[in-house]
Amino acid sequence: MTISANQCNGPIQKPKLEPVNSRSGWNLNKIFSFGTSVAKKTSSCNARESTCSKNNQAENSSTQGIETREELVQSNVLTSSTPSTKDIHKCFCCGTILAVPPRAGKFRCSICQTTNILVELITKPELDERIGMEKGSEPISVALVKSLISECYDRLQKNKTDLGSSKSLHEIFDPLGKYLYDVFSSHDTLNKAFFSKPQYEMLNSSNKTNSVHVDRKGIKEVFFLLTTLPTKRPLYYALKGANCLLRRLERVFTRGLDEDRWVFILFEIPFFQISLTPPSVQKVPKMTDAPEIRMLCYEILKRCLGVLSNIHDSKKTKQIVLNFAKMDESAFFSILEVFNLYLSFQLKKYYCVANNPQNSHDGSHSPNSILVPSLEDDEEYYRVVALKAELELASQSLVSLLIPGNSKHLDAGPSRSYSSKKSRKENKIKLLQYGNDWRIHSVLVAILFLFRANRLRSKPIPTYHFYNFLVDYVHIKVDFDTWQRDERRVQRKDAIMRDVLNSIHGSGARNSKSVNFNFYMCQYPFTISLGSKISILEHEARRQMERKAEEAFINSLDKRVVFDTHLRISVRRDHVVQDSLRCLQNNLGSFKKSLRVLFLNEPGIDAGGVRKEWFMLLTKEIFNPLSGMFSNIEDSNLLWFALGPTEREDMYQLFGSILGLALYNSTVLELNFPQALYKVLAGKSLNQLDYKTLHPTIYRSLSSLRKVDANELNTLGLTFEVTYKDVLGTTQTKELIEGGADVLVDESNLEQYIDLYTLFFLRDGVSRQLDAFIDGFKNVIGGNALSLFDEEEIELLLCGHTDHGIDVEILESVTKYTGWPSAQEAKNSTVIKWFWEIMQSMDQNHRKLLMSFVTGSDRVPATGIQNLPFRIHLLNDNQDSCRLPLAHTCFNELAIYNYSSKEKLSQKLYRAMEESSGFGIK
Predict the structure, then answer these.
(1) Nearest alpha-carbon partner for 567 in 665, 647, 477
(2) Which of 263, 346, 620, 762 has the fewest CB atoms lying closer than 10 Å?
(3) Residue 785: which of 472, 500, 480 has the closest Cα?
(4) Residues facing residue 108 across a β-bridge
(5) pLDDT tens-digit series, residues 616-651
(6) Which of 13-17, 209-213, 867-871 comes out lowest in average pLDDT?
(7) CB atoms within 10 A of CB 29
(8) How many CB atoms lie within 10 A of CB 52?
(9) Confidence band, pLDDT 50/70/90 cuts, at residue 403
(10) What is the tens place of the pLDDT at every residue in 454-505?
(11) Tell me: the pLDDT tens digits for 693-705?
(12) Cβ of 790: how many Cβ atoms within 10 Å?
């Protein structure tokens, strides 16, 4: 079967396009009538001219552009009112803003080569008759495909036995190929296929569902059946039909989800991973390794992601998120892995060019020149694959990034061995390369849908499964700074100081050479690994510390008064809370300076270790039950804000400031709070599940009320009141709503009662304490850096890994040694072998005690113990000694002597661990 171009492009004659060389033909008042704010931000209109000429060739005429396409429209189209103006439309696939002649029935996007159909086309009766999809006919299914395959094999057998027949293999299987092409090239036909049984029965019923029940197993089985045939023509036609469907798009997701099931069906094609990974090396190549099959799979995935990412109706996006949330875990993991592989595939081409500009044929052109917008499908895919293969051969430092398997293995990235910091910087992927790439933007939006869906699942998968470790090779700090620059609004009171500092750094706000980008990686932080997020947080903290130090220096010159460039905390060990509160209240404007702590009458100099000790002592005092600030919930053994009146809101503000300072200064604390606390820090609302974590037994009792019948519920006599004991032990009663004492709980208001009851103990009953805590935290932490983290990651930052033991083997592998002639001699020395044997024999409690002695914290860092800088130093010129080992907590360094026996080393080590409070030498 030969597929003509008309089958893809359709019969409608395309309108003649007049080149646009000025704005005079555009009705700008109509275009920008949707919002004054957008008109202010957009100084010029950027709309690429669509190609509507007879031969479908792209025209390059364009005007200067609109800043972001999301700001333009919430719907897919803006039209003008007069015949002389040009209509403005968005491409249904890539979202590009296009200028189209008025009353055009369709237009072709010059960026992604998609034909966008604006008027509803009547399906040809011949097509319906040919594919047998009249009312009541059987839709495509595994059984039907098996039947057609069986007929093809019968013809093949007959062809072998019939001496007068000489049909080729392709001719024998041609009817199957034609059928598959016609099915997959029609969205109406595909919408009626691959129903799971529940929705198939509801298809013609009155109460349709918003969920899309797709027979995933059936789709995969059909495609795997096609790979067992003696010819790849049927598989090729099925994929070709799907590609033609995606190259001719009508308005999508404007009706119910069941009208656009075909998008979710195409997402289940099982060969996407193959197109994104290197072909297998086998003597007999697989059918799916054929270049044309790989190219079509890539194109289908690319265009499906484009369609999904250009849905702007909030109701439809919520329905899509719910549909993803209802997937079983294996299907959810599978589609997440495909999306992550696609993102890696797109980013890797930029990484290859960044590392080998001298070998790239396009290195001298614009950042996006490696993919010319007007390239046809096969040209784009083959060119990218060939480019990456060429550059990888030219550079011995590159390794394969696209490893099939679970998405958590995507951290296999380029070699991290750099010759210098300069080369490391040069190896990063630049914002100019990806900031306007619609392919990357579309997959980020698709992963965002999955990320939101994961929050709605009964058992969410951990956040780290969404990380794409190739994003670590993006200039993520530049991405963050540029994003901040676009988001920042200069405050009037700081304008003079900012002007002075900007003139010093040469970073004026007005930069005529600035480039507008459609998106930033930091807008999709779930793809950024925790290590990269921490580097952004440290980068932002360091910059603000330097800025505060510069402000202090300038003020000292102006007022001729010495201003300290550090936040200095001087405390007595026996009065750590009172002294800390006094110091912080006296330095409210200095929280963003570098922190220095001094314990009075102790010789310790703060290079990090004294600070850790101060945080540890302070949090222990604050969380002491005798302080009355927090209650220990016996049911969960977790802490929460104490109920009842409080006269010490400043103490809660101090607690918030302490957490902010710990985060700001990269210090791990020993906290015992539920995740609800970190949700508050992340700016998220609390719900019943948070109460369940804190009060599991009471929550089970509340939930049991849902199973009680109406009469029994009425006999309980519950009202909208809550009774509790405050911090002083006094019994208190509060109304949950106004006049709640007179409102009985019944079936109609039961859910409201449970909501108000749970939120009272989480939020409403401790609102003053929570507000003071948040104020203290915000006094320290500001800006958008924290918005990159979710509550799970914030807990890791503040508390480290609480459920991870100390892995001695990993710690030994990353340990560095000083005081020996060489690292190898240190590893072979007797005292070091004894040390690791002693630590290996310790239980987890003693291992944590040792880590607390050496590093100031017994917690494993958020990024894992493999990223903990741990050092062992040899003292006394390799001589024995009776002294105890020393710990330099500032540098995570243990200093030991060359003890004469293993027993002596063990004795000294245990004594040092157990008597490690304070700073001095024993």
Answers:
(1) 665
(2) 620
(3) 480
(4) 51, 115
(5) 888 888 877 777 788 888 889 899 998 877 777 888
(6) 13-17
(7) 11
(8) 22
(9) very low
(10) 999 988 998 999 999 899 999 999 999 899 887 764 344 455 555 555 545 5
(11) 999 999 999 999 9
(12) 18
Question: At 116, phi and psi to the nearest 5?
Answer: -100, 120
Q: How confident is the model at residue 508 (pLDDT cuts 50, 70, 90)?
A: very low
CB-side exposure of 111: number of CA atoms within 13 Å? 22
Residues 194-246 pLDDT 10s: 887 654 444 444 444 456 788 889 999 999 999 999 999 999 999 999 999 99
pLDDT, tens only, 50-97: 333 333 333 333 332 333 333 333 344 444 444 457 788 889 999 988
pLDDT band at 3 (very low <50, low <70, confident <90, very high): very low
As a whole number of angstroms, the distance between CA 245 and CA 814 comes to: 54
Please give the angle made by the CA atoms of 405, 406 and 407, to the nearest 5 degrees: 115
C-alpha 297/C-alpha 307 separation (Å) is: 15
Distance CA 182, CA 190 (A): 9
Cα–Cα distance measured from residue 156 to residue 816, given in angstroms and rounded to the nearest whole number: 70
Alpha carbon separation from 837 to 799, 808, 858 (Å, rounded):
28, 10, 20
pLDDT in tens, 588-611: 777 777 788 888 877 666 666 678
DSSP string, 239-271: HHHHHHHHHEE---SSS-GGGGHHHHHHTT-TT
On whether the CB atoms of residues 565 and 553 are closer than 8 A, the answer is yes
Pair type for strands 566-571 and 248-249 = unpaired
Measured CA to CA, the distance from residue 537 to residue 134 in angstroms comes to 61
Alpha carbons within 13 angstroms on the beta-carbon side of residue 108 total 25
| 3-class SS letters over 546-597 | HHHHHHHHHHHHHHCCCCCCEEEEEECHHHHHHHHHHHHHCCHHHCCCEEEE
Domains, in order of start, for the chain: 1-121 (no CATH), 131-310 (no CATH), 344-528 (no CATH), 531-631+647-680+785-798 (3.90.1750.10), 688-762 (3.30.2160.10), 801-914 (3.30.2410.10)
What pTM did the predictor assign?
Answer: 0.77
Give SS3 for 479: helix
Given pLDDT bands bounded at 50, 70 and 90, which one contains residue 710? confident
Element (H, E) at 872: strand 871-874
The mean predicted confidence, pLDDT, of the chain is 76
Judge whether 890 counts as a catalytic residue: yes
Strands 248-249 and 594-599: unpaired
**Residue 521 near residue 476 (C-beta atoms within 8 A):** yes
Report the C-alpha gap between 627 and 621 in whole angstroms: 8
H-helix segments, 267-355: 272-276, 291-309, 314-325, 329-355
Q: What is the chain's alpha carbon radius of gyration, rounded to the nearest angstrom?
A: 33
φ/ψ (deg, to 5) at 722: -135, 135
Q: Are 686 and 806 in contact (CB under 8 A)?
A: no
* Spatial separation of the C-alpha atoms in residues 120 and 106, rounded to whole Å: 10
CB neighbours of 20 closer than 8 A, spacing ≥ 6?
Answer: 26, 49, 61, 62, 63, 86, 99
Q: Which run of H or E residues covers position 838?
A: helix 830-841
Catalytic residue among 52, 93, 244, 890: 890
Task: Note whether 53 and 62 are within 8 A (CB).
Answer: no
Name the DSSP class of 569: E
With a pLDDT cut of 90, the percent of the chain lying above it is 29
Taking the C-alpha atoms of residue 427 and residue 350, their distance in angstroms, rounded to an integer, is 10
Which residues, 6 or more positions from 610, have their beta carbon under 8 angstroms from its beta carbon? Answer: 597, 598, 599, 604, 889, 890, 919
- Report which of 533, 343, 326, 351 is spatially closest to residue 447, judged by C-alpha positions: 343
Residues 223, 235: contact at Cβ < 8 Å?
Answer: yes
Quick check: 9 pLDDT over 70?
no
Report the alpha-carbon angle 676-681-687, nearest 5: 35
Q: Which tokens in the block code for residue 252?
A: 């999508």
Question: Among 120, 124, 101, 2, which residue's Cα sits nearest to residue 53?
Answer: 101
